[in-house]
Amino acid sequence: MKTFLDLIEDVQKPGLCHHCGGCVTFCTSINYGALELGPSGMPQFGEKDKCIECGLCYSICPEVNELEDETRKKVSWEPPIGKVIETTTARAIDSNIRKNATDGGVVTAILLHLFNAGRIDGAIVTQQTGPFSRQPHLATTKDDILLSAGFYFDTSHGINHFSSDYSTYSPSVQEFRPMIEKGLTRIALVGTPCQIRAVRKIETLGIVPSDSIKFCLGLFCSGNFLFSEAEKAKLEEIGKFKIDDLKKINVKDEFIVHLKNGKIITIPLNKLDFMKRYACRFCKDYSSEYADISFGGIGAKEGWTTVITRSPLGRAVFADAKGKTIEVSSPTSGFEENASKTLEKVKKASSLKLKNAEDNRKKMDKKKK
Fold first, then answer.
1. Which position among 62, 197, 297, 345 has the lowest Cβ density within 10 Å, counted as fewest Cβ atoms?
2. pLDDT at position 60, please?
C-alpha cells in the first residue's frame, strides 16, 4: 500500500491535491498526528516519526481511484451521475433565509430542520471571512447555521489570507477534529464533491470519524475560483465591471455577477478557466454523486434550488422538511413537466466536467513524458 510520500509525488507535486483535509483528519483523529495542514492549505508532515506508513491517507484521497468500486457500492452509485431518486426544485419558506441565500436557501433550511427536530448536534458548513474567501466552521447553533447562508461580497468582513490568493474553496473536512474534541456524534456535512467523496471513502473503511457524520449534503460544483489581484483584474476586464461594485456571485450554467446597483452580468464559465483552482481542472464530479442530497442552481429559476435526492435517508429528510422549512415548486409552476429537462441539464454539465477532467489529465500525462 502506498504511503504519504507516494501521495506527495502522485498528487501534490502535479498540483492535484484538493485541500479537502481528509488525509490530515484521519491521521489526527486516530492520534498518529504525523500529518498537518501547511500554511498554503496543503497536507504535510507534522511529526514524520509518527507515520506508521499504513497508506490509508493515500486511499481516502478523492483524487486517487483506490476504493472506488467499494465506495460506489456503498452509496449505490449508478451511471452516469450517481443514484437519482427524485429531482425537483425547492426553496426555504423563511424569506429571510432566501434573502441571504445564493439560490433558494434549501441547504440552510434543511440544516435548520434537522437541528429543530433534534436529528443533529451540529453541521460542518462554511462561513464567509472576507470579500473573496470562506473558511470551514462547525456550527452548533441556529445562528451559526444562518450565518453560513449565501455568498455575498461584504468588504466589512475581515479578510482571511490563503497564501497570496483568496479562494471560494473551503477545506471543510478539517473540521472533523473539533467535532471529535467536542464529543459531537450527530453531524451533517455540507461539502463539495471532492469533500463528500473523501468522507465516503472514510466510511467505506469504517474508520474514525465516519460514524459521526450522519448526513452528507453535496453541492453542485463546476470548480472553485481564486481571486488574486491578477485574476480580479482580468475578471473586471471580461465582465466590464469593478470588483468594488460586487454584491454577490452565483454559479449555475454561467458565472452570474450581481452588482450593488442591481445590475446582473453573466459570463460563460469557459472564459473563466484561468480563475479555477488547479486541482479543480481534474475533478470529474459535478453534482456530488456520493451525497445523500445534492443541491445546485442549474435548471432552477431565480430564487429556487435544484434538489436531487440520492439515498433513502436523503429522500426521507427532504420529505420531512417539506412544509416545515422548505417548499417545493407547485404543479402550476410547470416544474413537474420540466424535471426531466432539469436532470438532463445536470447530466450535461456533469458530462462536460468529466470530459474536461479527462482531457486535462491526458495533457498533464503527456507533459510528464
1. 345
2. 78
SS3 258: strand
User: What is the C-alpha to C-alpha distance for residues 157 and 147, in angstroms, rounded to an integer?
Assistant: 13
Residues in the chain with pLDDT values less than 50: 152-169
Cell reading at 24: 490530515
Give buried/exposed letters for 46-84 (b at 16+ CB in 10 A, else e).
Answer: beeeebeebebbbbbbbbbebbeeebbeebebeeebbbb
What pTM was computed for the model? 0.84
pLDDT tens digits for range 180-233: 677 788 999 998 898 899 889 888 988 766 788 999 999 999 888 888 888 889
* CATH number of this structure's domain 227-275: 3.10.450
Domain positions in the chain are: 70-152+159-221+286-368, 227-275
Quote the CA–CA distance of 84 and 297 in Å, as a whole number: 17
The pLDDT of residue 164 is 32
Smallest CA-to-CA distance from 78 within 350, 336, 323, 281 is with 350
- Per the listing, cell 448526513 goes with 215
One DSSP character per residue, 334-357 reads: THHHHHHHHHHHHHHHHHHHHHHH
Greatest Cα pair distance, the chain, in angstroms, is 64
Q: How far is 247 from 236, CA to CA, in rounded Å?
A: 14
User: How high is the pLDDT of residue 337?
Assistant: 56
Instruction: Tell me the C-alpha to C-alpha distance, in Å, between residue 69 and each of 279, 325, 351, 360.
Output: 22, 36, 20, 23
